[in-house]
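Here's what a typical entry looks like (Immunity protein 7):
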Amino acid sequence: MFEYHGWITVRESAGEEGEDDSRLRQIVEELRERISLMDSPYLLDLRWMNGEPFIHLGGHSNHRSTPDVLELFGHVAVIAPGSYGLLHVRDDEDRGHENEVRVLRLARGGLTEHTEPLLSPCVPALEDPFNE
């Protein structure tokens, strides 16, 4: 099972001074094209709200799906290093992390991965232990 829920605030840079609105619009159009090619049956949305672009995504499949939503976070980190966001992932096929919700953190052009302490360990935090 592969479940994920996330968001990204898309920004060209971490500073507000010197923001190039035309460059940000180019970045958003590139991301819009990439997202359209992903053809996800799940939630994958890019929209402008109050003058800023945001990506929202979520899904639940039997296995880690392709194209990989994790790659989308990495791509945003490269082309828009001022972006920030979180992706919560539960993947029961991720060796060593089968009983955890993992959080991918996007900030300042970098990605880091963490265990989500509020939802981990999944058993017993989210589910009862399996009893035969």
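The domain at 2-125 is CATH 3.30.70 (Alpha-Beta Plaits).

More examples are in the samples folder.
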